[in-house]
Amino acid sequence: EENLYSMFRRYGKIADILPQPFDSKVVPKYAQIGFPRLSDAIMARNCMHGFVVTESMGGGKTGTLLRLSYVKKVKGHSIWNWLTSHPRIVIPILAALLAGASVMIFDPIRTFFIKRHVSHSFSITESRLYKWFKSQTDSLSFRSSKHMDGLNTVWNHRRDLIDQLHNWLDGSSSDTFVVITGPRGSGKIEMVMDQALAGRKNVLLMDCKPIVDASGEAGTIKRLAGA
């Protein structure tokens, strides 16, 4: 490398010298000399092509004849050319990377909003300001007192059922479920949501009828996601 540097440095600044690997059996032996400027490489090739390196300069007893040629330097756009010329390889890789990035980015967001929806974190009735304001007032209901008295009478009449439902919910494990049946308009949802589950967190109300009426697996998943 020192001999090559001393011979070619006079023609311009040398970027690097890449000698032939020591375990390479390619003949004739070679080395690559890189010039940052094209004009320097042209001048070095024109002056040194056919030059005989003597023994005193490290060319051996019989000397070494230099035969110079140009090697195209790999640039950044060559990678882009390779990517655009191999769509069968690049497109599946890009699709896999895009899918992975989508899962990494949007799955935590989806999980966050599901947890907030179940825990009612975004509900105004769960805010501290609403609870404080409600505690400072006697009533925030706009219904008539006669109507409220009627509802209280209904719930008092069903107090045994509400207490029994409380006991079932408090004593049941996560592997069991409770089914509430009754005629339409009998107040099943109000009894469960407004009475038995009043004050509980992590309550999710889901209407299963649109999910059952959905056609096909895709429709079921779509309605289940929007429930």
TrEMBL record:
One molecular function GO term is:
nucleic acid binding
Pfam families from the entry?
RNA12
**Record's bilayer topology term:** Single-pass membrane protein
Q: Does the keyword Methyltransferase apply?
A: no
Q: InterPro entries given for it?
A: Mt_escape_2_C, RBD_domain_sf, Yme2_C
Domain spans labelled Mitochondrial escape protein 2 C-terminal: 158-225
Kindly give the SUPFAM superfamilies that the UniProt entry links to this protein: RNA-binding domain, RBD (SSF54928)
Write out the transmembrane intervals. Answer: 89-106
Cellular compartment(s): Mitochondrion inner membrane
Q: Which UniProt keywords apply?
A: Membrane, Mitochondrion, Mitochondrion inner membrane, Transmembrane, Transmembrane helix
GO terms for CC? Answer: mitochondrial inner membrane
Record-stated family: Belongs to the YME2 family.
List the PANTHER family hit by this protein, alphabetically.
MITOCHONDRIAL ESCAPE PROTEIN 2 (PTHR32198:SF2)
- Name by which UniProt lists this protein: Mitochondrial escape protein 2 C-terminal domain-containing protein
UniProt organism field: Photinus pyralis (Common eastern firefly)
